[in-house]
Amino acid sequence: MTKTIDTTGKDRVIIFDTTLRDGEQSPGASMTLEEKIQVADLLDEMGVDVIEAGFPIASNGDFEAVSEIAKRVKRAVVCGLARASQNDIDRAAEALRHAERRRIHTFIGTSPLHRQYQLQLSTEQVYEKVIASVTRARSHTDDVEWSPMDATRTEHDFLCRVVEAAIKAGATTINIPDTVGYATPEEFRSLIAMLIARVPNADKAVFSTHCHDDLGMAVANSLGGLLGGARQIECTINGLGERAGNAALEEVVMAIRTRGDVLPFYTNVDASMLVRASKLVSSVSAFPVQYNKAIVGKNAFAHESGIHQDGVLKNAQTYEIMTPESVGLKESSLVMGKHSGRHAFREKLGELGFQLGDNAFEDAFRRFKDLADRKKHVFDEDIEALVEDEVATRSELIKVIALTVIAGTGGPQKAIITLDVDGRHETREATGNGPVDATFNAIKSIIPNKAKLSLFQVHAVTEGTDAQAEVSVRLEEDGKSVTARAADPDTLVSAAKAYVSAVNKLMTRRAKTAPAAVAEAG
Length: 522
Description:
With about 525 residues, this protein is α/β, with parallel strands linked by helices. Helices cover about 40% and strands about 20% of the residues.
């Protein structure tokens, strides 16, 4: 059971999530509109205060995502990023116009390096742009955030000057980014404290942190910022973000919750949803979470050492400073196998958060039994993977029926595949440079396409040689990309299912865009 936090005498910390903006800027982490909406819905449900939904002027896709999220989100503030230019700011305002609560976040580089080499502007020109951009943003909304990019390498006198100007122009949140992850926790704490002490109108704005993890100190720096006087932390699920990533939301939230003795703060985030959010973002971004990742990693609450096991069995607090339930994990050690019945399987689904109708339950149970015949133990992660795979494929027009692959060193690799294409079975065979290539070639002989395979990623759902393989596939066509995933104990079967699922998404996208193209041509 989740422990209630005593917030008496504590300051609230605003959690600003930028997974959909800064997180998506990770190379290879782009999400579809549908996936972004999924993430935004969950962030809103779990109590995140501000959702930075994207950078509207960056692309039409980003604009559409921000616009759609602005229409859906009911609790959180929806934020759009904009550079210090009129076009950027107006585009952000347009994307946010349907939001119940909206924020424009505008920024400009302030360090000598950024002024001289990136912007090629003098200090006075940067100063004027700060005032102009914040004033423009304030004309659209009374919730304006301003950031001096590369603040930790900016001269203190100039930083104080531009922060004062931004607040005077109407900024209600001042975000101090450690853009390149350069600072140490004490430096960052001192920087925030210095700004609050020296800037005359500092009391009229909330100070915020935005720390990158290049030296592995993003979370520590963010918490240092709180101790210096900041009351907003910008972060991402799983620490997703450019280069080494951002401060991880789950680590920030649980550090505040667990160490209230030295961090007298609280957040509105429902911590019991952290694991769920981590899994969703990992899935849609195709970025696996490292096993030893704090809070949400697979091994975060696992104990293999005999000494640790003995201690935990006697009292969990000997080696656990928080409970698995507090972040959304289940303590159940029930091992599911081929002798498990429907009742036990339904109970396990309930524990994992799945509520299936009768037909869907029977399909899932059949798949579970098939899997149990092929595996010694079926873990929670296996069940989650097979149910999610079943849900994803139920509405698809094309399904994998059978696959045979001939591989090895002695001859060409060959694949024979049978697909159900809208109710009819078609079988083809093809060769390729390896078994996966042969499998994909066989699929393309049935469903011709010119999509480029831009991602092929495999990871084991659980441990052991009989573990299910989860395959993520990303296909690109006409400048757009789709990502799909599938799980199966046979890696090649999983690859085939993932590829076919991606092709289904491409076909759905074509069907949606074709009428619009016809109408435009008309």
